[in-house]
Write the structure tokens for this entry.
Amino acid sequence: MSARSASVLYDVPGPRARLRYRLAGVLGALGIAGLLWWVVTTLTDQGQFDGWLWDPFQYTAVQQRILDGVLATLKAFGLAAVGSLVLGALLAAGRLSDHRPVRAASTAVVQFFRAMPLVIMIFALYQAVFTAEPMWGLVIGLVLYNGAVQAEIIRSGINAVPRGQGEAAYALGLRKTQVMSLVLVPQAVRSMLPAIIGQLVVTLKDTSLGYIITYPELLYAGKLIASNSDGYPYIPVVLVITPIYIAMCLALSGLARWLESRGRRGANRRVAAAA
Amino acid sequence: MGIPFEDGNFSLFVRGFLGTLELSALSALFALLLGIVLAAFRVSPVPVLRTFGTAWVTIFRNTPLTLMFFAVTFVLPRLDLHISSFTAAVAALSIYTGSFVCEVLRSGINTVPLGQAEAARSLGMGFGQTLGLVVLPQAARAVIAPMGSVFIALPRNSAVAGAFNVFELFSVQKTLTEKGYAIFALFFWLALAYLVISFSIGAVFSALERRAAVAR
């Protein structure tokens, strides 16, 4: 550890502290290596790395099934993402409305759907309406829950714009809609984008709930592969689909980080111009 | 079709409610312990532990909860590790929630300005005093609100366990739906149960927040 990187928790280390840290580092590395070794030997002892167990992944049909699973996941995610952003914008507008009944109704809707478990909503929708088309049960459940969460993100983003901005716009004679769409929203979008995309990552992960209502997304495809192959290769399947999910989520959060850095750059420019 | 709570269904419902509570409470406890250990790793001065903590959190925050339940349900028996589905569910939920707890704690510590520790040291405070009297109390204050949302989400997430052989409220919904009870009447009662749970947790955390609040 270099002496420059100061932390709020520790002093800059002296010679003895550096020695202690190095010792702890060696012990930690040994512990982690031991843990990994234990995992790998357990898997090997149970024959989970035997070639024949991994054979199914060479079949085109299985590869196609995984690809179809990824596409089904992305399709449900795309529909749910668009739907939840639209619903979120509407509910946020409702919560910021000047009319008390509209405000009360949107608050009630947001609070209700934020408190409900997604599984319960999706299962109820599936059993009641979409028995033949599990995808819409999944998508509508995702839209209702994530729409409520996005509404809160959008609302707090708009509330975080300095009050003077709205007041100045009103003083210039703009209307309510104009103030919102020309002044408040463009400034709020910049600060809330990371949170919105963070919630989209949650949406992407939650598409795996389609497994429970037999929507053939990635996890369900994995289950079918594992239960239809010789030797039931559940472990190879988990080892294959987990990285796919992690890569998809990391790609989305990478997008969030990139947008955030762009936003910061823009904000700096704005401050420089104002000064 | 009929009234949801005829012939003993009410006791089924209560059993499911208690199952959800038990699962959530145990997972909350273990998630908190795991989160504290992981956060300690992630802010430690030892690079190896920091890397390990970061890798662990990255993996488990980006893995869907359903996939984790799937893994503990189908993978562990293949390794000759036979544990009850309740224990497996507690493990999956704690590992999943633990990494979120870790991130909340870490960002809480990061909100404490460096100057606070420097001032404490220049007043002659030792390591323990700096940490215990100056840094951690301030970090705790910043942590309460986001920690509340993590623990309000936990009972909601625990419903997934019902799809993996654990008896809780989602299992009640499945059982009674299969018996042919009105789906939306059932949904209403389940909604009520979850609203009670999440509003009670929310109330506890806003009380904590009020107690920790200081006039600035």
